[in-house]
# Entry
Amino acid sequence: MNTQAPPGVLINGRFLSAAPTAVHRVAYELTRALGELPQRPQVSIAVPPGARLAWPAPNLPVRETGRLHGIAWEQLFLPQAARGQLLLGFCNMAPFSVRAGLTMVHDAQVFTTPRSYGQVRSAWARLHIRRAGAAQRGLLTVSEFAKRELVSLGIAPPERIHVVHNGVDHVRRISRDDTVLGRLGLSPRRYALALANVQPHKNIGLLLRAFARPGLAGLPLVLTGRARAADFAAAGWSLPANTVFAGYVSEGEMTSLQAHALAVCTPSLTEGFGLPPVEGLMLGTPALIAPCGALPEVCGPGALQVDPHDPVAWEGALLRLQNDPALWQGLADAGQIYAARFTWEAAARKLVEVIAQVTAQWP
# Structure
């Protein structure tokens, strides 16, 4: 019988000083929720020396360790800090020398849609993921769909890949900033929302073709995020006159845009999870999604599923939502009920179960 005390857990806190992204949001919220659990393993966070935190410090010990920053710190000094502990990484990457680790791989898109990431970035990420899958105690991922893809690619067998669904209830603690509606000239339920993203798998070109159709001429398509009109033009896409580029928006502005939209549109050809439509569901806004990737799994009955290659079908679905208040309300109500299962507390509790499982025999 193994009577050795369970090991401590060290979180790779490099994300705490990184610019906010969807992956970093997941890392932060999961770490925050873990720190708020009354019963959890002994957990601390390692960060590079002199790190300036871009997120509020979670309720866990944060300690600076090693030298250097970025990838060099992660590969050379984090393994030393993690010695004798289980290392948790939530951002796809992991030190090559660490075996006592759990790394969260959010999706398999660097394998299935490498054009979306570029040759060098895809190759580097694939190397990390394959190494973690082969050498570590297990992998974490965020949906059953993502797990199936990782298994089919031979990254790790199913018993070593653990699903910890994302939460979306962080939107409930964000104060909405409704001034964004006036700034962009928008009215509640009189616009659709999507991401300004030119990655091929995001398939936003499909939305541009749909909003160029006459039936949607009076409905703005609001795009939030980094990509601008010039980026879409460079990608070969024509912009309809009713496209509104919001650019980067604050958390409060984003929450307002999600809460007041007619629909959050996600025509992606694949997603490991898909935070924006599920965040919208929790705020009471229906989703229009492609029946691809994890989107049906995480959106459930709060979404209309629409052919990701048919702009006419997207035009029709949006017009149905616009012209049928009962349909809109039914989807909104069902979506809120379904999205209520995706909390960060539930994710943290599942993570604690996985930690107990993989450390049952230690070292």
Notes: The CA atoms of residues 282 and 336 lie 5 Å apart. The mean pLDDT is 96. The domain at 9-167+343-358 is CATH 3.40.50.2000 (Rossmann fold). The first helix runs from residue 22 to 36.
